[in-house]
Amino acid sequence: TESWEDPVSINSINRPELDHIGSFCLSYDGNLVVFASRRTPTIGNFDIFISEKAGNYWTQPKNPGKPLNSPGNEGNPSLSPDGKSIYFTRCESMNLNSKSNCSIFVSHRLTPTRWSEPEKLPPAINMGHETTPRIMADNKTLVFASRRAGGKGKLDLYQSTIKNKTWSQPRALSYVNT
To answer: Distances in Å between the alpha carbon of 78 and those of 15, 50, 89, 164?
Structure first.
């Protein structure tokens, strides 16, 4: 039987008064945390920050700058399993508890500290308000929340897969949507 230790706050990272709640992502290897925050230095209202594990500690979060971050609002980052891509939302409006008019983007790591110009995912995925993208362990399946026509609730989960650089038509995850 596995047992878990009690959680411990990571003080070098946690700033609840500045961080977008629920916007943290741990890399698949457990050595990076990416998240959205309003801490300085910022380029926009909310930016993506990155912290690396150094032994038993986490480094002070760093803003990777432009072009990953923009004068707008970036949030809900999700690192690919190989750490070479980051999926995230760019939103018209965002505060500590909510966001609106968001689209999903992807940026690719050029060097350990530089990212490519973000690319907006195709219209079949971005239909008006998409959020919380998560790239799965196969590095081909994207699960995200969307407020699109025909859904069961305010935000439903959808899945799309990439093959030959083309994303499939998203399908609702009906078994979890309510």
So the answer is: 19, 11, 10, 21
